[in-house]
Amino acid sequence: GPLGSPIGVFWDIENCSVPSGRSATAVVQRIREKFFKGHREAEFMCVCDISKENKEVIQELNNCQVTVAHINATAKNAADDKLRQSLRRFANTHTAPATVVLVSTDVNFAMELSDLRHRHGFHIILVHKNQASEALLHHANELIRFEEFISDLPHHHHHH
User: Fold this and answer.
1) Quick count: other Cβ atoms within 10 Å of Cβ 25?
2) The pLDDT of residue 43
3) What is the pTM of this model?
């Protein structure tokens, strides 16, 4: 359609966190600028334990219209489970061509990405940290290093 194919972003913010002194808003804007051309934003979600995450980060994500999904960090693999569930829901809601941007380095997502790419025919962009395992990297169409991706983002100017 005229709006282009759907794109969904799924951000494991505890795995790929906003560096101290940087703005979450800038990270979100960078993702939108870099990947969203010719697409329509179908989903942009971030999973975290709201009680543990920096309040300013949460506020900025909310202001950017990012869905902040709360999980309980004390439950093992809670973030992974929530993201997996969201990826599956996206796959069941949209058909190819569609793009999934996963911001994580967790190898637990390898099977999901494989499924999205091969069974659903989606285009997979993986934004990952340097220490990502080959098993995860293997399933993406495009690989972006998180550290490089955010390296030149503006710093925060705090007003005290």
Assistant:
1) 20
2) 97
3) 0.94
